[in-house]
Design brief:
globular, 203 residues, mainly beta, single chain, 7% helix, disordered N terminus, four-stranded antiparallel beta sheet, 1 helix, five-stranded antiparallel beta sheet
């Protein structure tokens, strides 16, 4: 009997911390125009092809006034392999949303941003990027402009972005997320193909 009571108390505590279920967003006549900033399912529930390829990214030393964080990693997507440098140019909070701006530069071989940054193989956007709040144990997915199956991400498209060293070596992108709590000043940013960049300052 004591064991049953203890297990029930533990389950109630997890639910109270917000880890057992995700927040619901209000619905209304303008829902289709408003970003859906609710957290989406964990990456473990994504199709196999959408999971980031395990890499060992190397931190990039960034210059003040330019990138705020960066990394270099071997990448593979769509049958193409290469080496890429990813730089986060800004991560800014504005009201209830946060906007991420970043660039990807091909250093060696071919870097497939065409369908390498999306949530699945035929997703030609950067919707696979997510923010991780390590303090509160929450993940933030890219916002959507609606709640139905046709809702599009509030983020960059990547159609035709096959990068290679030379004239077309770099590509830029953005993504909008729900804003973490005001007390959160740093987050981890996870990119498909690239991996996780830790402790990115949130301004």
């Amino acid at each position: 009997m004591r064991r049953t009571v203890a297990l029930a108390a533990l389950a109630a505590a997890l639910t109270g911390c917000g880890l057992a279920e995700e927040p619901k967003t209000a619905q209304g006549p303008n829902a289709a125009q408003q970003p859906n900033t609710a957290q989406q399912p964990n990456t473990a529930q994504q199709p196999e092809a959408a999971r980031p390829t395990p890499t060992q990214p190397v931190a990039v030393q960034v210059e003040e006034g330019k990138a705020i964080a960066g990394t270099i990693a071997a990448v593979s997507a769509g049958g193409q392999t290469g080496k890429a440098k990813l730089e986060i140019m800004s991560l800014k909070r504005q009201g209830r949303t946060t906007t991420l701006n970043f660039t990807v530069t091909a250093l060696e071989g071919k870097v497939n941003m065409h369908n390498g940054m999306g949530g699945h193989t035929l997703d030609y956007t950067v919707s696979g990027v997510s923010l991780i709040d390590p303090v509160n144990g929450k993940r933030y997915r890219v916002a959507r402009n609606g709640t139905d199956e046709k809702a599009e991400c509030v983020c960059s498209g990547t159609q035709g972005m096959f990068l290679a060293p030379g004239d077309e070596a770099s590509g830029s992108a953005y993504a909008v997320f729900g804003a973490p709590p005001a007390e959160v000043t740093k987050v981890d940013v996870e990119f498909p193909m690239i991996g996780v960049i830790h402790d990115v300052p949130l301004s």
